[in-house]
Specification:
Elements lengths: L2 H8 L2 H23 L8 H17 L1
Length: 61
């Protein structure tokens, strides 16, 4: 059994419904972004560069 399966099985029902509602909201936002063409291709190098820039800014403040 994976960790997520164990977590889902042991969650109280109310918390489980809350988690599923949150997941559904995230999926709905993603589907809206897809429909409105607000997505870009995955670019690991761009993400790494943004992380480095953010880290550098964080260190300088």
């Amino acid at each position: 059994m994976t960790e997520i399966e164990r977590l889902i099985i042991t969650l109280p029902a109310a918390l489980q419904r809350q988690e599923f509602a949150s997941l559904k909201a995230d999926i709905d936002r993603g589907m809206t972004d897809l429909a409105e063409r607000r997505l870009t291709d995955f670019d690991a190098e761009r993400i790494a560069e943004q992380g480095k820039a953010f880290s550098a800014r964080s260190r300088s403040t």
